[in-house]
Structures are given as structure tokens and as C-alpha cells.
Design a protein that fits this description.
Blueprint: E1 11-13, E2 19-21, H1 22-25, E3 31-35, H2 42-53, H3 55-60, E4 64-69, H4 73-82, E5 89-91, H5 96-100, E6 115-119, E7 125-130, H6 136-147
Length: 148
């Protein structure tokens, strides 16, 4: 997926059991969709908490934050509650959405590439942030993209 591409639509259940559909939710503002390899791991926790801690900045820009991984609902619930995450964590158990977005790894060890997509209200991709080791860059670049 590249900047300017139409983001694939999808519908997934989040950690609270709520169905989230991309195209419908975009009516409420842009979505920052971040794929992470595994809940409760150090890197993913750091990234998810940075998204939590900057929530007011995203809200001020009218943007929503959605995390997504191939973890099951129990893992996602534990991750959200342990870290007081205030945004939905989507369950992509089979990796279908990860495949659509081109971030599914061929082996299941790490499952997905750590990648963030900033998606505009028109469902077009505004930015793609791919960094496996710099957890803060996902939030920082997403905020820059939303402000542009």
C-alpha cells in the first residue's frame, strides 16, 4: 500500500466485542491504523502506550486511533486492560486484513510488519509509516501527516 491508494475496507471485532468497519468509521474522521506483531511484548507495549499518551493530540485533529494484530480476543483484552489503552484493538486472527494491507509476514513468528497507515476520510492513504525498531516514529509521523 502506498500514499494515495484507496485503503481496503474491512470489518473486524475489537477487544470489547464491537464490530468496527473502516468505511463507516471514517465518517467520524481520519483513522490511524497501526499493525503490531504481538500484544504484551516490549516493543508493541511501548508503541501502544505512546498512542495512548498522545490521544489528546489525535483527538484535537479529529483523528481516531485503531490498533490491529493477529492476537486473539483474550490477548487483546489483557493488552488493553493492563496498559489502560483508550482506543480499539482489532482482532485480525487469520491475518486477512494484514494480507490486504501487505504487512503479513510469510512466517507466523512475528506475524505482521510493524506498520502504521494514516487513512483520510476519503479512504485514501495519507501516509505509511514502517519502522520495526523506532516505536515513537509511528505516532510522531502520523501526527505530522494529519497536520499537513
Amino acid at each position: 500500500m502506498r500514499i494515495g491508494d484507496l485503503a481496503p475496507d474491512f470489518s473486524l471485532i475489537d477487544h470489547d466485542g464491537i464490530t468496527r468497519q473502516l468505511s463507516t468509521a471514517l465518517g467520524d474522521g481520519p483513522i490511524v491504523l497501526f499493525f503490531y506483531p504481538a500484544a504484551m511484548t516490549p516493543g508493541c507495549t511501548k508503541e501502544a502506550c505512546h498512542f495512548r499518551d498522545t490521544g489528546s493530540e489525535f483527538t484535537a485533529l479529529g483523528a481516531q486511533r485503531w490498533g490491529i494484530s493477529m492476537d486473539d480476543s483474550d490477548a487483546q483484552n489483557l493488552f488493553a486492560s493492563t496498559n489502560s489503552l483508550d482506543y480499539p484493538l482489532l482482532i485480525d486472527a487469520g491475518g486477512a486484513v494484514a494480507r490486504q494491507y501487505g504487512v503479513k509476514r510469510p512466517l507466523n513468528l512475528l506475524k505482521v510488519r510493524r506498520t502504521t497507515f494514516v487513512i483520510g476520510r476519503d479512504q485514501r492513504i495519507i501516509d505509511v509509516i514502517a519502522s520495526e525498531f523506532n516505536m515513537e516514529t509511528h505516532v510522531d509521523r502520523a501526527l505530522v501527516a494529519l497536520r499537513s
